[in-house]
Amino acid sequence: MEQLRIYTLADKETAAQYFTTNWARHRINLPKFGFAVKGVWIGNTPGIANQVIALVSFPDNADVDEMTERYLKSPEFAADTADFDRNKITNVETKILRCAS
C-alpha cells in the first residue's frame, strides 16, 4: 500500500529547505524501516508553495503507525532533522492509499 504525506511548513523558504536537505536524508533512511519512497514534491502554486508532499509505500500487512513510530524514535530520524526546527512544520496530513484494481 501507499501513504501520501503532506507536510505544511511555516513558509515557502522553510519548505524548500525541508525538501532539499531533510527529505534527501529521509530518502536514505526510511527504507531501513521498511518504507519505499516513491517520490517527493514541493508545492508549485501559491496556495501550496509551503508544502512538501511525499508518496511512500510499505508492505500490505504492515502496521504503518508502528513503522512510523519506530522511525521517529530512531537515531536516523534524529540525524535527519538535527539542523531543522521541527516547530516549523505546522501540519502533517497522511492518507493511506490502496490501488483500485
Automatic annotation (TrEMBL):
Pfam families, sorted: NIPSNAP
Top-rank taxon, per record: Bacteria
InterPro entries: Dimeric_a/b-barrel, NIPSNAP
Residue stretches spanning the membrane: none
NIPSNAP domain segment(s): 3-100
Protein name (database record): NIPSNAP family protein
